[in-house]
Design a protein that fits this description.
Elements (H helix, E strand, L loop, with lengths): L10 H9 L18 H12 L2 H14 L3 H25 L5 H9 L2 H36 L12 H16 L8 H12 L2 E2 L2 E2 L4 H15 L6 H23 L14 H6 L2 H8 L15 H30 L10 H8 L3 H35 L18 H17 L2 H25 L20 H12 L1 H9 L6 H20 L3 H15 L3 H25 L8 H25 L4 H30 L6
Antiparallel strand pairs: 1-2
Length: about 625
C-alpha cells in the first residue's frame, strides 16, 4: 500500500486477482474459456483491422498521398510490428485481459496506468465514432441502390455541410467549378436543403446514431460473437477485398499512377491518421489473452500474421483505387464503392456497400464490447466509481458502462466528421503504443522459456546512437529549420528529436533492447505527423483525465493508503485557481459566440485546476514534509 502516484500493481498481484475471478474480463465470477489458437487469433486480427480503414479512410489517405500512400502502409506496418512484439512480450508475462492499461500498471505505476486507461477510452470511443460515420456512408449508398433516398442533411455532420457550402461558394465565385468534388456538392446540398431557424441548420448523421443504438443494445443484452461467426465474417471480408482487387485490376489505368507521389513525401505523410487508423484493431487481440490456449506462444504469431496479411491487402487495394481513378477524386467516405460507380459497375458497387455495412458493423460491435471492459477494469481498481463495474444480474454484462459507452459514441457520431475522429484516434493509439514499448524497456530481462514468447534481445548500444547521428546529418537542413522558424507545427517534431537524443544516450549507457526502442521512436515519429491541432486536442483530453484522477481516482485507488490531509486542502485551493482561470481564458480568448465562450471556460477550468493543484502539491511536499506523501 502506498500514497505514491507511481505505485505499481505487481505482476503477481495481477495474476492472483485474475485467478480469483477479479480480472476485468470476468463476468459473474466465472472464468473465460481458453479456446483460441493461432488461426483464430489471426482471423480476429484481420476482423478488427479490415473494417472502416479499408472501406473508408483509405480514400482520404490516397487523396493526400496519391499512389505513394503504399509506402505509408509499409512504414505503418513496420511500426505496428515493433509494437506488436512489445505487446506480445507483455502478454507472455501478464496473460490477462486489460491490454496496455494493465501493462502500464505493472511497469510505470498508477498515474501512467490512469493516463493510458483514459487514453484507451478515447481511442475506443472516438474510433467507434469513426466506424459509425463510415457505416452511415455505406448504408446510405446501399439504400440508394434500392432507390431509397435519404435527405443529405440527415446523413452527414454539421461541420462538413457548412464547410462544403463555404467552399462551393468560393469555387463558384472564382469560376473553378471543376474543383467541386462530389463530396463538396453533397455537403452544399445538405446545407441548402436543411430545415432550421435563422443561421442555424438542423443537420445530423442519423444513420450513425441508429447503428450505435442498435449495437449498444446488442452488447447490453449480452450478444457476443462466437469464434465461428467471427471466422465467417473474416472470410466474407477477405472474399470481397480479393474480388475488388481482381476485378478492379482490369480497370486500372497505369497513367493514374504518375506521378507516384504528387504531393511529395509530406503529402504521403498527411495520410498517417487515416492509414494508422486502419491498423488500430490489431492491439485488440491482446485483450483475448485469457481466452487463448497458449497466449505466450500464439498471441505474437496471431498479431504478426494478421499484420502481414492486412498490409498486403491494403497495399493492393491502394494501388487498385489510385489506378482506377485519379487520386484527386478519392476524398470520399466510400472509396471502394465510388471507384466502381465511376467505371459504371454499379452492381459491384452495391455488393461492396452491402459488405461494408456488415464489416463495419461487426468492427463496431467488437470495439463497443471492448470499451466497457476498460471502464470496468479501471473501476475495479478503484480509479473510477464502482457503478462502472456493475454487472447486470440477467445479461451478465457491464450494464452501466455499456450504456455510458453508447452515449459517449452515439451523440458525437451525430455531429463529428470522419477526419477529426480518425486523427484523434490515431494519436491516442500511437501514444498507447509508445507507452507499451517504453514499458518493455522497464521490465527486468528474463531468460527465454520453452513454449513462451520471448522478445529477441538485440543490443542497441551502438546501433541507436549511430542511427541518430546518421539521421541528424542526412536531415540536418530540416533540423536547422526547426531552430530558424517559429512554426508551432514543428514543436512535436522538436520533441521527437529530444526524445531520440535521450534514447540514444540511454541505449549506449544501459544497453537497451533494440526492438522496443525502435518501436517507441517510430510511433512517436508518426505522432509528430498528425499536426499541432491534434496534439492540442489530445493534451486537453489528458488534462481532463488528470483532473478526474486528482479528484477521484487517487484517493479511491485500492492500492492507496489513507490520504494525507494536504491533498483535500490542495483540491479546495485548486477550485479557486480553476475559477480564476475561467475568467482569464475567456478574457484573453473571448468570442462573441456563447458556445465558444462556454468551451473556452470549460478548458480554462480544467487547465487551471490541474496547474493550481500541481503547485499546491509541490508547496506542501517541500514545506510540509511530515504531511506529504
Amino acid at each position: 500500500m502506498s500514497n505514491s502516484i507511481f505505485r505499481k500493481k505487481s505482476i503477481n498481484k495481477i495474476l492472483a486477482d485474475c485467478a480469483s475471478g477479479f480480472g476485468d474480463a470476468e463476468h459473474g465470477g466465472s472464468h473465460l474459456k481458453r479456446e483460441l489458437n493461432v488461426k483464430d487469433l489471426t482471423l480476429m486480427g484481420i476482423a478488427a483491422v479490415v473494417g472502416a480503414g479499408i472501406f473508408s479512410t483509405i480514400g482520404l489517405a490516397s487523396f493526400n498521398g496519391g499512389p505513394g500512400v503504399t509506402i505509408l502502409f509499409i512504414i505503418t506496418a513496420i511500426t505496428c510490428g515493433f509494437s506488436a512484439l512489445c505487446y506480445a512480450e507483455f502478454a507472455s508475462r501478464i496473460p490477462v485481459a486489460g491490454s496496455a492499461y494493465t501493462y502500464a500498471y505493472a511497469s510505470f505505476g498508477e498515474l501512467i496506468a490512469w493516463i493510458i486507461g483514459w487514453d484507451l477510452l478515447m481511442e475506443y470511443a472516438i474510433g467507434n465514432i469513426a466506424v459509425a460515420v463510415s457505416w452511415s456512408t455505406y448504408f446510405v449508398n446501399l439504400l440508394e441502390g434500392f432507390g431509397i433516398h435519404m435527405p443529405e442533411y440527415l446523413t452527414m455532420d454539421y461541420y462538413s455541410a457548412f464547410s462544403a457550402h463555404e467552399q462551393v461558394q468560393q469555387l463558384t465565385s472564382s469560376h473553378h467549378l471543376a474543383d467541386i468534388t462530389d463530396a463538396l456538392h453533397q455537403g452544399a446540398i445538405a446545407w441548402s436543403s436543411a430545415p432550421g431557424f435563422g443561421s442555424f441548420k438542423l443537420i445530423a448523421n442519423i444513420p450513425a446514431l441508429a447503428i450505435v443504438i442498435g449495437i449498444t443494445y446488442l452488447v447490453y443484452i449480452g450478444i457476443r460473437e462466437t469464434k465461428k461467426a467471427t471466422n465467417a465474417m473474416v472470410i466474407l471480408k477477405i472474399a470481397i477485398v480479393v474480388a475488388v482487387i481482381a476485378i478492379g485490376f482490369f480497370y486500372v489505368t497505369p497513367a493514374n499512377w504518375h506521378p507516384f507521389m504528387p504531393n511529395g513525401f509530406s503529402g504521403v505523410m498527411k495520410g498517417v491518421s487515416g492509414v494508422f487508423f486502419a491498423y488500430i484493431g490489431f492491439d485488440a487481440i491482446s485483450t483475448t489473452a485469457e481466452e487463448c490456449e497458449n497466449p505466450q506462444r500464439d498471441l505474437p504469431r496471431g498479431m504478426i500474421y494478421s499484420l502481414i496479411i492486412c498490409t498486403v491487402l491494403y497495399i493492393l487495394i491502394a494501388l487498385v483505387l489510385t489506378g482506377m481513378v485519379s487520386y484527386k477524386k478519392l476524398a470520399v467516405g466510400d472509396p471502394l464503392a465510388y471507384v466502381f460507380n465511376q467505371v459504371h459497375l454499379t452492381k459491384i458497387s452495391g455488393i461492396i456497400s452491402f459488405s461494408a455495412v456488415i464489416a463495419t458493423a461487426s468492427v463496431l460491435l467488437i470495439f463497443q464490447l471492448g470499451q466497457p471492459r476498460i471502464w470496468m477494469s479501471m473501476s475495479r481498481d478503484g480509479l473510477l466509481p464502482k457503478v462502472f463495474s456493475r454487472i447486470h444480474p440477467k445479461f451478465h454484462t457491464p450494464s452501466f458502462a455499456t450504456i455510458v459507452t453508447g452515449f459517449v459514441v452515439g451523440v458525437p457520431a451525430l455531429f463529428l466528421n470522419l477526419t477529426i475522429v480518425t486523427d484523434l484516434t490515431s494519436i491516442g493509439t500511437l501514444f498507447a503504443f509508445v507507452l507499451v514499448c517504453g514499458g518493455v524497456l522497464l521490465l527486468p530481462r528474463e531468460a527465454a522459456r520453452s513454449g513462451r514468447f520471448h522478445l529477441p534481445y538485440i543490443n542497441s548500444k551502438w546501433i541507436v546512437p549511430v542511427l541518430f547521428i546518421l539521421c541528424a546529418y542526412v536531415f540536418r537542413k530540416d533540423v536547422q529549420a526547426l531552430f530558424n522558424g517559429n512554426n508551432k507545427d514543428d514543436l512535436p517534431f522538436f520533441l521527437f528529436i529530444i526524445l531520440s537524443a535521450v534514447l540514444a544516450v540511454f541505449a549506449f549507457i544501459r544497453n537497451l533492447s533494440l526492438i522496443p526502442v525502435l518501436g517507441l521512436l517510430s510511433c512517436f515519429y508518426l505522432m509528430t505527423q498528425l499536426g499541432y491541432t491534434n496534439w492540442e486536442r489530445f493534451i486537453i483530453w489528458l488534462v481532463i483525465g488528470l483532473d478526474i484522477y486528482i479528484s477521484y481516482g487517487y484517493e479511491h485507488s485500492l492500492l492507496g493508503m489513507k490520504i494525507s490531509s494536504w491533498h483535500k486542502l490542495a483540491k479546495r485551493i485548486s477550485l479557486i485557481g480553476a475559477i480564476i482561470s475561467i475568467f482569464i481564458v475567456v478574457f484573453i480568448e473571448g468570442h462573441n459566440g456563447l458556445l465558444l465562450n462556454i468551451i473556452y471556460a470549460a478548458l480554462g477550468f480544467a487547465l487551471g485546476y490541474l496547474i493550481t493543484y500541481t503547485i499546491a502539491a509541490l508547496y506542501f511536499k517541500l514545506f510540509n514534509p511530515d504531511k506529504a506523501v
